[in-house]
Task: inverse folding
């Protein structure tokens, strides 16, 4: 099963990667979370698209936009200086990944790249009887994106004590699909958002559903929380907005 998943996802990923190119869109930058002021930490978490302009990592433009969004959406001010963790969900976009690595190799004091290749999931959770779906959702062993582990890791990364304030910027190419999947898992787990609220917010970023494979991966994670994590039995992980429309896949 895992081999079949890899083949399907890689084929889709190749098509997507060829079709898209990275170009920073400031309108897709949004605030996700920050450490509580009473913690004494000044770490924060944002989402967006690939921060490249003309093939070069646009650090200044990204930082300026995050400063604006921190005030507009988070009602706080970013520290004057901070360490940027560029959390990249890219998988086959080799040139864009290289541009990010080159920038931080040349500017190690500004931040670093953390790669978390993300591909989605081609298996619809709602195609199985509930007793099978519940069993499969326990550890999501077939989830190539490791959403269970990553969502815990992201929260721990945000709330860790560093030598200086840290800003986490999570992105894929478009800042919509893979980013919507990973961010959506965070909303479900740490904001206690409903499935509908999570999907509606992802939709609002670009005015369309996130890609089918990303929807399915996120839906499986929703079922994992609903069935297996205490306090999440209120979730209704229905097929709301799950739509297999290949014309909407813009990773």
Result:
């Amino acid at each position: 099963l895992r081999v079949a998943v890899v083949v399907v996802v890689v084929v889709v990923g190749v098509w997507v990667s060829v079709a898209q190119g990275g170009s920073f869109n400031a309108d897709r930058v949004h605030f996700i979370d920050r450490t509580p002021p009473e913690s004494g930490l000044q770490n924060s978490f944002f989402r967006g698209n690939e921060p490249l302009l003309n093939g070069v990592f646009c650090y200044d433009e990204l930082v300026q936009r995050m400063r604006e969004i921190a005030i507009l959406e988070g009602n706080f001010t970013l520290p004057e200086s901070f360490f940027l963790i560029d959390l990249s969900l890219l998988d086959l976009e080799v040139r864009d990944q290289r541009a990010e690595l080159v920038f931080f190799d040349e500017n190690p004091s500004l931040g670093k790249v953390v790669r978390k290749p993300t591909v989605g999931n081609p298996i619809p959770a709602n195609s199985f009887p509930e007793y099978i779906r519940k069993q499969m959702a326990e550890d999501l062993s077939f989830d190539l994106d490791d959403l269970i582990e990553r969502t815990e890791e992201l929260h721990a990364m945000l709330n860790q004590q560093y030598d200086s304030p840290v800003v986490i910027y999570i992105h894929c190419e478009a800042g919509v699909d893979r980013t919507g999947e990973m961010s959506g898992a965070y909303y479900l787990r740490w904001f206690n958002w409903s499935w509908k609220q999570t999907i509606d917010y992802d939709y609002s970023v670009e005015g369309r559903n996130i890609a089918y494979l990303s929807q399915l991966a996120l839906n499986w994670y929703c079922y994992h929380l609903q069935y297996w994590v205490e306090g999440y039995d209120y979730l209704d992980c229905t097929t709301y907005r799950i739509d297999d429309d290949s014309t909407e896949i813009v990773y």
